Inverse folding.
């Protein structure tokens, strides 16, 4: 399955579920687009540790700041206007 198809299905399903259960005021909708980074199996431990420490990590750096730093680190061309908006 293509990653874009998987993400599309996840976004559609979760949007419908959130709206059906009225988990937010108004109508919930994902922003357009997505980003994904892959890591090799040998880096699994580091990824798990990152997830376990995510709350502490994001106390000093926003998700958006980290996302932009990953784009820069992996030399992914991007335009500011297409990056997600923080609320």
């Amino acid at each position: 399955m293509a990653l874009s198809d998987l993400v599309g299905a996840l976004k559609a399903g979760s949007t419908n579920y959130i709206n059906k259960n009225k988990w937010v005021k108004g109508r919930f909708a994902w922003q357009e687009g997505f980003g994904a980074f892959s890591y090799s199996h040998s880096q699994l431990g580091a990824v798990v540790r990152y997830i376990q420490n995510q709350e502490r990590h994001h106390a000093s750096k926003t998700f958006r700041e980290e996302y932009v730093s990953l784009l820069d680190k992996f030399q992914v061309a991007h335009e500011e206007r297409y990056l997600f908006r923080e609320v």
The two ends are 32 Å apart (CA to CA). The first helix runs from residue 3 to 20. The mean pLDDT is 89.
